[in-house]
Amino acid sequence: MSTLSPTVIFNVRSSFSRYIEGSRGDANAGFDLTSLGFPKKLVDQLPYGAFFGRYTFADYISLGRYPSNNITNTFTVHPTVTRIRGNKTFKAGVDMRWTQYSTQSYGNVFTLGATRAFTQRDYLRADELSGNSIASWLLGTPNSGSINYNVFPIFLFPYTAPWAQLDWKISRKLTVNAGMRVDYNLPPAERFNRMNRGFDPTVVSPLDKQINRAQFPELPPLRGGMQFAGVNGVPRRAADVYPHTYQPRIGVAYALNPKTVLRGGWGRYYSNPNNDYLQTTGYSLTTPFVFSANESRTPVNNKINDPFPTGVLTPYGNDLGPLTYVGRGFNFVNPKFQIPLVEQFSFGVQRLVFRQARLEVTYSGSRGKNLQNSKVFNEDAVEVRDRCNFMLGGNPAYCDQSLPNPFRGLPALEGTSWFDSVTLSRGQLLRPYPQFGALTELMRNDGSNFYNSLQSSFSVRTKRTNLLANYTLAKNIERNSFLDPLRGVLNSSLAAYDRTHRIVVSAVTPLPFFRRATGWKGRMLKGWENSLILQTQSGRPWPLPGNVVYLKEARLPIDWKQARIQAVAPCVQRWNENNTVTWQRFSQEAGCTEPNFLITPRFAARLTPLTDGRLRLQGTRSIDTSFNKTTAINERYRVQFRAEVFNLLNSFFVSNAPFNNNPEDVNFGSVIKAAVSAPNSNYPRQVQLAVKLIW
Fold it and tell me: Structure pTM?
């Protein structure tokens, strides 16, 4: 009995790549801001040279831009070994990558903006009839703005992933594939330790000793402060290393009989986190625009003449410790973040229907766990919020009440509105960390999703035509965002990209023309081939408004041919600041007699899921086709010609533009076709011609 000697193959691949992304703002460079009336003392302090600035107006197009330039360098080394012996193939290797991400973006260095706030009826809540951002601007009262002084960090991402896989044909009927991979996907570090690392909720704030306790005896002890990577014993990476990323995979194929094959598999995969890791608060610094001395109730007159009278703040790094960004809000990363995982599994049957036809039906699903999400961190307790909620018998006046400002005049808050403001609201002073504004904890692991699908495929291959038809019935549910973060209530609804049905039919067919032609005519006219792809799929679910109670079914029959597509009955009532409920004016004009939606008062938690599958955006149907021919010039050279047509019938679908979900807007529940263009719709017909020389 003889045995086969194993074949062993070693291979090493290495590469380097550089990717540069950004936008140009050169047309705005060299502009003298003093020509717009801004003081020279301010213009001289702006970093990164002279630019026109950035100006935003709610409901209108913004003006101005700054350049950006981000560079990503990636070094990779990938050694592998393959061992083949008989019916077994074993492969192993290590995927090693080292990535540098250098951000060289100015950001919006100088920016001012206006909303409808100072020209609307109630400064706290927008309404459908009052206010205009241009009017607010012309009054000299913009209500947003900043001067950004950004650091240009260099983030370092190391990644190492050893893996192994065994393919084993156990018998003529049974084949097994098994593997293991471990991803050491380390959190990034900044080359010079210029990044944040979490928030310490227990550290005593240096601000605590500066409070006049005799004047403010009820203010609780001040705790909490930002932490900095690589400073005072804090690790230099953005979060702890999560090493438990073992990813077993197994697949099995079994031939039940000569015409039927069963296939199944299961695998675990860890996903790559996004760039929320990269927080540089303190190393980058924003000079806020202080436009009001009483928490946005009234503006400072003529603020536009000298928007930053105290000058431009320059970054102070980690020198202030827990005093960093007092009087403001910021984001921070959860240092205990775990790499999110997805488990995928499938089981299918493949059957040879007749000699040229094959049918395959597969159940495929996945379960996402520990998915990345965020949560507000510095909010009032549930009891306080509910006491301010009309719907629960409370009153917003309790949280809105102005109380003496204990932080007024403290040096650490200079440059913020709290330094000058005489009062702060009770809601602010009752926050867990009242010396800070709104805080958001990024890179939490509360999320999950569930995907189930039935996938079928039918293919026929003949001498003249190859036909393939696919149908997928799917449902994708996500639990990721918080509806009520104070009570820990997560959203559970269809994912925004859920598509219930999807059908794709494709065919490749040689054209029957001029088959008997010879000579130059045969070379030019015969041998053409046509491919055709027909696709149709369901629309995405409607994103529901977040500030309403959905009282009654609001769907309307939809006529997609209309210039204004009304999908939802615009019957909306509003819970007002004086604890009354009134109709929206556009609802009265529409002849509504019963409300479908009630706009909730302030301090109410969200009561609707993120999406509603009962109402979907427009689905799509498209036909793409191509004609191609390859002609041999001689034994060595061939030339290929292709003519491709996308969206052959030039059909228009409002596939991504959602129906207006702002219940304060007169267009609520509708979409205006004339205002929709790609990519919020499909692209118009496109014709593409190509010639390729092959040798």
Answer: 0.86
